[in-house]
Amino acid sequence: MMKTVFPQNFLWGGATAANQLEGAYLTDGKGLSVPDVLPEGKDRLDIVNAPDYDFSLDEDKYFYPNHVGIDHYHHFKEDIALFAEMGFKCYRFSIAWSRIFPQGDEDQPNEAGLKFYDQLIDECLKYQIEPVVTISHYELPLNLVKKYGGWKNKRLIDFYENFARVVLQRYYHKVKYWMTFNEINSAAHFPVMGQGLVKSNGADDPKNIFQAWHNQFVGSAKAVKIAHELDPKLQVGCMILYATTYSYDANPENQLAALQANQANNYFCADVQVRGHYPAYTKSLLAKHHVALSDLQYTDAELALLAQYTVDYIGFSYYMSSTVSVTQTDLPRVQGNLVGGVKNPFLKSSAWGWEVDPTGLRIALNELYDRYEKPLFVVENGLGAIDQIDEQHYVADDYRIDYLRDHIQAIAAALSDGVSVMGYTPWGCIDLVSASTGEMSKRYGFIYVDVDNHGQGTFKRYKKKSFAWYKQVIESNGQNLAAIEK
Question: Of 380, 391, 439, 485, which one is the catalytic site residue?
Answer without folding.
Answer: 380
